Amino acid sequence: MNRKLISLAAAFAVSATPVVIAAQASAPAHAQRAVGPTVAAATVGVRAPTAAKANAKVAATQDTHLGAGQNVAFMVVGGAAIVIGAIVGGAGGILLAIGGAALGLYGLYNFIQ
Hints:
The chain is mainly alpha-helical. The chain has six helices and no strands. The chain has helices spanning 2-15, 17-23, 39-42, 50-62, 68-88, 90-112. Helix 1 (2-15) packs antiparallel against helix 5 (68-88) and helix 5 (68-88) runs antiparallel to helix 6 (90-112). The chain is elongated, with a radius of gyration of 21 Å. The two termini are 34 Å apart.
């Protein structure tokens, strides 16, 4: 009975994979950088800090999922703990799977917020 429950929890964790894939999707095509040497990269010496401040403001406004990396990491580690708990078996494996499920759900909750 316990192995079936753990296997069901592991199947649920694997089904959450599309969330991880969406989080790792590549940037839109219009955000690509120029390839090769540029005049700005060839400049030697001290540069004016105004360009860095402008870039930082743009990057802060574009990042809508600030801190999403940690939440996705919680979900992945929780899923891994569920799978490892199913492999270990016994009381320790059940505790590990329950802890992994709690960690994964916590990461999912924060990711959705």
